């Protein structure tokens, strides 16, 4: 166990360093964790071997996967049903444009500029079309946009984009078998039953020191994740859907959400983001940067071609439209999942996989840094403060009336 505890201390030390770095540089913690993971793998790997960081240890993979699942669930739970009903046209338009234009553009670039075979090109299009719910949600949460209609609309658009990615991956590559039918059937049942069961279960058994609510949610997230993987899908897809259907219950229980965030951001997501960064080989990229740079710039370019005009059409100012487009240009979870799917099924080779993963992780860092440095929409934070002040005034007035009555 000595090695396990030492490895855990190393990873949490890296997470602590990444948090301090994010404070000093004023960037999202998720991005600093990716960068720290890349640098740590470079130096620790050079000093003690590539396996020294332990990114492939089973318990680290479990914590990393759990972090992705719970973070994706929280992102889904932040989708305000009322805002989604009001802004569904905008979210759907932005999300679909964010998927289709990069999907076709990156597939064409891989086929005709990089010379990849057709199947590898389609996989590249899928991997590069994604928007990272994990990164966008982490940024929204860190700056407070998750409490605004703007942030909730962007998160809804992310869901539409990644739903298109998962459907494309399944329709083009994954086999449609009896397992798929069972997964869809059980998932449909769970998604209908949970919104009815959860509030009743929480009212009767919740608010206890045993944290029964967290155990209840993790049971369904792990169960549906296992079923999804068994059916050749991905565990994060049902997690996002469960979060969406429980947005009216879990999303409005602020105390529960805070406790889940403590678990997620304090322990789980550092393993996910640092591990994702550790997969980037800087020497390999420096030796052959062409494919990585081409895929990264084509993705960002096609995201602008697809998303920017749509956001402008819905009345967004230029700065806000650019910020939204850059956030929709990020990629991480589904992009790396798609690349690993292709490698494991020999659709792409190791070199193609490295270029794809590097481009995906690069898209998680570069667009977000540019967005927060030059196009940050401060006016939405002012609106959030005004709404919070109004809510505080209303609460104070209600308390005063109650005290007067008593």
Word description of this protein:
- With 406 residues, the chain is mainly α.
- It has a single domain (15-48, 58-387), classed as Na+/H+ antiporter like fold (Up-down Bundle), CATH 1.20.1530.
- Helix content is 81%, strand content 0%.
- The protein has 17 helices and no strands.
- Helix 9 packs across helix 10 (236-245), helix 13 packs across helix 14 (318-328) and helix 14 (318-328) packs antiparallel against helix 16 (350-374).
- The radius of gyration is 21 Å and the shape is globular.
- The termini are far apart.
- The model is unreliable at 386-406 (pLDDT under 50).
Keywords:
single chain, 406 residues, 17 helices, mainly alpha, Na+/H+ antiporter like fold, disordered C terminus
Number of helices: 17
- The best one-word shape is globular
Give the low-confidence spans.
Answer: 386-406
**From the 3D coordinates, which CATH architecture would you assign?**
Up-down Bundle
- What is the total number of structural domains? 1
**CATH topology value:** Na+/H+ antiporter like fold
- The helix content is over 70%
How far apart the termini lie comes to: 60 Å
Query: Regarding CATH, which class?
Result: Mainly Alpha
Number of strands: 0
Q: Output the structural class.
A: mainly alpha
Oligomer: single chain
- Rounded to an integer in angstroms, the radius of gyration calculated over CA atoms is 21 Å
The chain-level mean pLDDT equals 84
Largest sheet: none
- The proportion of strand residues reads under 5%
Reading the helices and strands in chain order gives HHHHHHHHHHHHHHHHH
């Amino acid at each position: 166990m000595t090695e396990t505890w030492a490895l855990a201390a190393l990873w949490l030390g890296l997470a602590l360093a990444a948090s301090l770095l994010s404070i000093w540089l004023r960037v999202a913690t998720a991005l600093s964790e990716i960068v720290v993971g890349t640098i740590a793998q470079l130096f620790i790997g050079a000093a003690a071997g590539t396996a020294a960081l332990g990114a492939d240890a089973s318990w680290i993979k479990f914590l990393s996967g759990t972090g992705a699942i719970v973070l994706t669930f929280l992102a889904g739970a932040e989708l305000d049903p009322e805002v989604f009903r009001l802004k569904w046209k905008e979210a759907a338009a932005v999300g679909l444009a964010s998927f289709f234009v990069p999907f076709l553009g990156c597939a064409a670039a891989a086929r005709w500029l990089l010379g990849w075979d057709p199947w590898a090109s389609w996989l590249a299009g899928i991997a590069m079309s994604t928007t990272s719910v994990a990164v966008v949600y982490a940024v929204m949460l860190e700056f407070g946009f998750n409490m605004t209609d703007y942030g909730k609309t962007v998160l809804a658009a992310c869901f539409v984009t990644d739903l298109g990615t998962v459907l494309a991956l399944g329709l083009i590559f994954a086999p449609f078998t009896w397992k798929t039918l069972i997964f869809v059937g059980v998932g449909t049942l769970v998604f209908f039953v949970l919104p009815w069961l959860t509030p009743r279960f929480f009212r009767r058994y919740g608010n206890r020191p045993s944290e029964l609510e967290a155990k209840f949610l993790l049971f369904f997230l792990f169960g549906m994740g296992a079923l999804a993987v068994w059916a050749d899908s991905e565990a994060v897809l049902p997690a996002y859907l469960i979060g969406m259907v429980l947005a009216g219950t879990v999303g409005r229980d602020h105390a529960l959400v805070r406790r889940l965030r403590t678990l997620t951001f304090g322990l789980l997501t550092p393993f996910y983001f640092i591990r994702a960064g550790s997969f980037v080989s800087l020497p390999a990229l420096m030796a052959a940067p062409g494919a990585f740079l081409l895929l990264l710039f084509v993705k960002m370019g096609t995201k602008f071609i697809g998303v920017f005009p749509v956001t402008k059409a819905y009345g967004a100012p230029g700065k806000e439209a650019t910020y939204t487009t850059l956030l929709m240009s990020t990629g991480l979870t589904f992009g790396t999942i798609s690349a690993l799917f292709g490698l494991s099924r020999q659709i792409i080779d190791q070199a193609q996989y490295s270029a794809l993963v590097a481009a995906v992780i690069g898209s998680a860092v570069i667009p977000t840094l540019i967005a927060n440095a030059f196009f940050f929409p401060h006016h939405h934070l002012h609106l959030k403060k005004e709404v919070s002040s109004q809510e505080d005034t209303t609460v104070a007035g209600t308390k005063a009336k109650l005290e007067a009555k008593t």
